[in-house]
Amino acid sequence: MEKRILGRTGRPVSVVGLGTWQLGADWGDVTETAAREVLEASAEAGVTFFDTADVYGDGRSEQILGRFLADHPGAGFTVATKMGRRLPQLPANYRAENFRSWLDRSRRNLGLDRLPLVQLHCPPSEVIDNDATYDVLDDLVETGAMAAYGVSVETVDQALSALRRPHVASVQIILNAFRLKPLERVISVAAGTGVGIIARVPLASGLLSGHYDAETTFAANDHRHYNRDGSAFDVGETFSGVDYQVGVSAAAEFASLVRQCLPGGVSTAQAALAWVLQQPGVTTAIPGARNADQAAANAAAAGLPALPAEFLAGVTRIYDERLRESVHHRW
Ligand SMILES: NC(=O)c1ccc[n+]([C@@H]2O[C@H](COP(=O)([O-])OP(=O)(O)OC[C@H]3O[C@@H](n4cnc5c(N)ncnc54)[C@H](OP(=O)(O)O)[C@@H]3O)[C@@H](O)[C@H]2O)c1
Known about the structure:
Layout: E1 3-5, E2 12-14, E3 18-19, H1 32-44, E4 49-51, H2 60-70, E5 78-83, H3 96-110, E6 117-121, H4 125-128, H5 131-143, E7 149-152, H6 156-163, E8 168-174, H7 181-191, E9 196-200, H8 223-226, H9 244-261, H10 268-277, E10 284-285, H11 292-300, H12 309-327
Parallel strand pairs: 3-4, 4-5, 5-6, 6-7, 7-8, 8-9, 9-10
Antiparallel strand pairs: 1-2
The chain binds NADP nicotinamide-adenine-dinucleotide phosphate (NAP).
NADP nicotinamide-adenine-dinucleotide phosphate binds near residues 19, 51, 209 and 289.
């Protein structure tokens, strides 16, 4: 699979990575066996970049990844974790002693002395805009606890703020066919800064597979059931902030665009992923997968040829006609 350098980490990573929130919690039940199959299928298909966080399943995702890494020594994998949500997201909690103890826990969970990349996990803007945050992070790089740091953000303005910092290695942001604002405001800017762009929620939490309809239900412990109104965390993380029924009908139009413009063997989800990773300035897209078949299919999207102009124009049209008004002014 094609690899790109992940910003200031200097590390080559696969253009399709794997998001491992699913392997922790919040997506219904995923057994450890299924989680392991997802990881193995991804690696088999050439994935070398894995995104996790200390809070996914309160450490479960990191621990499963840690056991997987131990079983694949020298495989050239890069794991990016996140910190900052084990306490309430108040600016005062983003301080050196907390960072140190969160990092130590992640190092134990992942079985890594030095974490390759640690991202602040969508902190408040005040933290992203504060010089002191980066002073502490720079010190932690000096101590060797982590090799590099990045920032995972909710909004375009937060991304632009992080991009201005000289030692930020990567910015993680939502980018998908239903979330075009970062394309217009962030991705092109990032290209000139040397900061890597990690595109998350590339399938709009699965909506862009085109498999859901008005009757689809999700398990009670799946955020697509309990966070549609943003009561647990930022609503932009669930279906990319698109109202479910609006999203289902936009996804049906997206699926028909795929059938019209792309060869028969390309699934709707693969087209959605290819759209993300073919945007100049994107380093890697990190779809989540709930089983090995999804993981393998997602990795295969890296091999698709350049998407035709008719398809690209169709994506913009669907966004402009159905979604722009409700989501573009947010995030
Ligand atoms: N704040 C943050 O920093 C933050 C927030 C959110 C996510 N993330 C990261 O980003 C990663 C990706 O985002 P995400 O998992 O939220 O959303 P996503 O990748 O847009 O959607 C994942 C869902 O899409 C469906 N799917 C995946 N592959 C498919 C395929 N080939 N065909 C059909 N359906 C498929 C699966 O759901 P079903 O099987 O149920 O249909 C899967 O759970 C996360 O795992 C996490 O690592 C970070």
